[in-house]
UniProtKB/TrEMBL annotation:
Residues 6-121 form the Gfo/Idh/MocA-like oxidoreductase N-terminal domain. InterPro entries: Gfo/Idh/MocA-like_OxRdtase_N (IPR000683), Gfo/Idh/MocA_domain (IPR050984), GFO_IDH_MocA-like_dom (IPR055170), NAD(P)-bd_dom_sf (IPR036291). This is Gfo/Idh/MocA family oxidoreductase. Belongs to the Gfo/Idh/MocA family. The keyword Metal-binding does not apply. GO terms for molecular function: nucleotide binding; oxidoreductase activity. It comes from the Bacteria. The lineage of its organism: Bacteria, Bacillati, Bacillota, Bacilli, Bacillales.
Amino acid sequence: MLNKLTWGILGCADIAVNAFIPAIRQSKFNELKAISSRRIEKAQETARDNNIPVAYGSYEELLQDPEIEAVYIPLPNHLHKEWSMKAAAAGKHVLCEKPIALNAGEAKELASFFHERDLLLGEAFMYRHHPRFDRIKEIVNSGELGTIRGIHGTFTFNNANDKGNIRYRSDWGGGSLYDIGCYVINSARLILEKEPEAATVHGFFSEEHGNVDMMASGLLEFPDSIGVTFMCGMWAEFQNTLQIVGTEGIINIPSSFVCSPEEKSSFSVTIKGEERLEDFPPVNQYTLQLNDFANSVRQKTPLAFEVEDAILNMKVLDACLKSAKEKMKIQIK
């Protein structure tokens, strides 16, 4: 790859500062040119602290910068569709934080908008780019675990005291399903290479937190009688695990979605009572995600995970939210 892909960031969100910026610094194929904020002072401060060449006092200004080829969008969920489309209208490729939109209908609109302009739109599920998951899929597909009977995932953290957090605005797409439940749903679809047929979810909606789902526990019914159970929440002790259960063996994945880029990672495989560890050297999965994106832009090839996958994930999220609110099983069509 000859020329680095040039990036701008819309907003100064924590994930941009703590994850995206360090990751792009480690990439040989990407370069950060500019950051923007609705307040020029905030943009200038973030640019100064992170050695970013240009700061803009509006998102629109950044999108008009001809040197920027791709835009990272870490804005609140309800702004994902609007600013992704504005970026595409300005001729920019987009990597948007998850969930890509507020529902499957919005995701379909985005897909069409980008396809019409021959631009790439990626949903930022960084964990998928870690080599662990290629290996996990290889083991599952090899039959070593036997027939897969179920998957269980848990992703929780406790942020309940931060009452002003944007995650607690229901009109902004807040709630645990949107924020972290989407990871477990996405990983089950990735591993099984199938789509669920129905969802049943119990949610805890907190009046103290804008009536968003602070906790959710669910069952996804996949083809071949495979059950995927999950728990996600923003008012519980931190967990970040995934388990795949087969007739002959089990895979246990600690730190399944969030893992340190400075430390090695591993997962265990237990076959008929015999356990082994599969180890991986430290990698920054955000950097790997950016490298894959840049490669697709430069080589004019499809993304490893195309926007159609984001539409399918949103369909499941739509069903989960509907089930939690209406207290009933929802068929996914």
